[in-house]
Specification:
heterodimer; A: 416 residues; Helix Hairpins; Heat Shock Protein 90; 3 domains; five-stranded antiparallel beta sheet; 12 strands; B: alpha/beta; Arc Repressor Mutant, subunit A; 2 domains; five-stranded parallel beta sheet; 42% helix; histidine kinase (chain A); cell membrane (chain A); His_kinase_dom (chain A); transmembrane helix (chain A); ATP-binding (chain A)
């Protein structure tokens, strides 16, 4: 869920949860204050009546809701306010009234004065007020949410711009986008850090690339000298003992050279230097490579069968694909035994290479760099690591299955 | 027929040991060799002399060697250029070939391979009439990719043909199995796993030549490789 949506949702939930409590508080507050106002009015009316009595007014019933009468002197002077339901003579209906009853001594006589005030108006007033406020709250909550949501999108825009720029960053481009300053401090801080971080990554990447290339240059040149000089020594008439030793040195030099070359290739793959994406037919290239390696296959008398249910096409760098196919096929030949088998099955979304092998393979180890099976000569143990890295950066998945004396490599499109 | 005697070659290489080894090798092969250790030096030599080939290191102390190709091609259109680079970079290779270089090799290289490629460049530049190789009774027509022994056609597979050309270009030299494998399968040579295929090809080629000439020119050199030699 988007942060925007989450924040507005939380706000909405809080508003809706708080609203009933607010309404209850409002309802009771209104009631309380209106009651106080009514009581004040009742007291005022009562004072007026007392004043009339004092001035000799003798009619006992001033209105249906106010009046007085003489009571025994023994009744103590008091005042009480209560709610009661009485008949409203105008409407001929029982209604709730607030009644103030006072026992007062005026001109030496005890009087009971009563004043009543209908509570129906008050209730109506409270209901109307609460309803109006409720509508106002809900309406403003909705308006606020819409406005806030729109504003959020606008406010968060610099953040989304930065994310878009980050997504487009590719090390192979060698130039990174600039993260523009923002008028929001937090985004400004983020962009400032992103600029710093990406510049650092780029400069580290460039120096690493330069280092890798320079390291290769610096290693390959002395290796060229070693190899060249040994090849010249090999031309001399040497005793067999010396010849054997010289050849060992020569083989070691070749091995170092091959190792440097493969490690450099892995570095280049890791650095995404091969990034020309095009739709390539993996099946076609596999068939072509089988043709190229035909002699090796015949040499071991390997029976090769290819079942093309459908062509497997994928968008990736052609050079990387050729390395991947070469390595997989040569692996299937190298680790195969005389009169062994290779079966290739091509489907729309995958290709599988199954081969017989002379050893039990631990599938968890096959992709480890420098992992070598005990029985293979001249292997530096990087071929399948290269396969795995190529697959990884080309959105492919390599699955390995080992069963008895067969091993199968499934290359399939990665499900995103 | 091709004659490499007295053909002139300029080796532009800043690594002095490597430069010296190549100078000695090509001098022994009969070439007139001059050397340069940087771009400035190379430009100087190119103005003073007319060369048949240039072996050009791409990474020179005073700049990219590839910049020299334009100058070379302006002064002398038929100059054969082979780039020698420490970088195994496809872009670099394509750039070099686009600029007009004939071939591209990466370090470390086998000197026999360099020799073979230099000779191939020369033959290509000389045209049809030079495109043949002769060794005693063996004649190789490089255009038609055919071989005759005592004027009788010798049927060879493509790899056997490549192998024979490589041997004749580097006759009397011990060629290691690695160097042969590299020549026949180039970058794929490390996928081979072993040299069994080379043994098979050599055995077959030897048998085929012997069948027509009665002589075995391919000698095994104990523990190292093979040598193509008449005696």
């Amino acid at each position: 869920m988007k942060l925007n949506r989450k924040v507005t949702n939380i706000q909405f939930i809080i508003t809706l949860t708080a609203a009933p409590f607010a309404l209850l508080i409002m309802y009771f507050s209104f009631n309380f204050f209106l009651e106080r106002e009514i009581d004040k009015k009742l007291m005022l009316d009562e004072s007026k009546i007392a004043n009339l009595i004092e001035n000799g007014y003798l009619s006992y019933k001033i209105s249906p809701f106010a009046g007085f009468r003489v009571v025994s002197d023994s009744i103590a002077i008091s005042q009480s306010v209560k709610n009661e339901v009485i008949l409203d003579p105008f409407l001929n209906k029982n209604r709730e009234f607030r009644t103030l009853t006072t026992i007062k001594k005026i001109n030496g006589i005890h009087y009971l004065i009563y004043v009543k005030q209908s509570l129906v108006e008050r209730k109506h007033m409270v209901y109307v007020m609460v309803t109006v406020i409720l509508i106002f709250i809900v309406f403003s909550a909705i308006i606020f949410q819409i406005f806030f949501w729109k504003m959020q999108n606008k406010i968060w825009q610099p953040f989304f711009n930065s994310i878009d720029k980050l997504k487009k960053i590719s090390l192979g481009d060698e130039t990174f986008p600039k993260f523009d300053p923002s008028d929001v401090d937090e985004f400004n801080m983020l962009n400032k850090e992103l600029n710093f971080m990406t510049n650092k990554i780029l400069s580290d990447y460039l120096s690493l690339k330069e280092y890798a290339e320079n390291a290769a240059h610096e290693t390959q040149t002395p290796l060229a000298i070693i190899r060249l000089e040994i090849e010249e020594i090999m031309q001399d008439d040497l005793p067999n003992r010396v010849r054997k030793r010289i050849y060992k040195v020569y083989q070691a030099a070749n091995r170092v050279s091959l190792l440097t070359e493969k490690l450099l290739l892995l570095t280049k793959i890791d650095n995404l230097e091969f990034n020309k994406l095009e739709v390539v037919n993996v099946t076609d290239l596999m068939l072509k490579e089988i043709g190229e390696l035909d002699l090796l296959i015949k040499q071991k008398n390997i029976a090769i069968s290819v079942l093309v249910k459908q062509d497997f096409k994928h968008s990736m760098d052609l050079y990387l694909l050729s390395i991947l196919v070469d390595n997989l096929l040569s692996n299937a030949i190298k680790h195969n035994f005389q009169n062994g088998k290779i079966e290739i099955v091509s489907e729309r979304e995958s290709i599988a290479i199954k081969n017989t092998t002379f050893e039990n393979v631990e599938v968890t180890n096959v992709f480890k760099r420098f992992y070598k099976s005990s029985k293979t000569e001249n292997s530096i143990g990087l071929g399948l690591s290269i396969v795995e890295r190529i697959a990884e950066i080309s959105k492919l998945h390599v699955k390995v299955e080992s069963l008895g004396n067969t091993i199968t490599f499934h290359i399939q499109k990665k499900i995103v | 027929m091709v004659d490499y005697e007295n053909r002139s070659i300029l080796i532009v290489e800043d690594e002095m040991d490597l430069q010296e080894s190549m100078r000695v090798f090509f001098t022994e092969e009969g070439f007139q060799v001059q050397v340069a250790k940087n771009k400035f030096d190379a430009e100087d030599k190119l103005i003073d002399h007319k060369f048949d080939f240039v072996i050009l290191d791409s990474g020179l102390p005073d700049g990219n060697g590839l910049d020299l190709i334009k100058v070379m091609k302006t002064n002398q259109k038929d100059l054969g250029i082979l780039i020698l680079s420490a970088k195994n970079s496809l872009d670099d290779k394509l750039l070099g070939l686009d600029l007009g270089a004939d071939d591209y090799m990466t370090k470390p290289f086998h000197i026999a391979e360099l020799n073979s490629r230099i000779k191939a460049i020369y033959r290509r530049r000389q045209g049809r009439e030079s495109n043949g190789l002769k060794f005693k009774e063996i004649y190789i027509n490089l255009d038609e990719q055919s071989v005759t022994v005592n004027e009788i056609e010798l049927p060879l597979t493509q790899k056997e043909f490549q192998l024979l050309v490589y041997f004749i270009n580097n006759q009397r030299r011990v060629l290691s199995k690695e160097s042969i494998s590299n020549h026949l399968w180039e970058s794929q040579s490390d996928l081979m796993g072993n040299f069994d295929l080379i043994y098979t090809h050599i055995k077959n080629l030897r048998k085929k030549i012997e069948g027509l000439s009665g002589k075995n020119y391919i000698k095994s050199v104990y523990g190292m490789g093979y040598k193509f030699i008449s005696e």
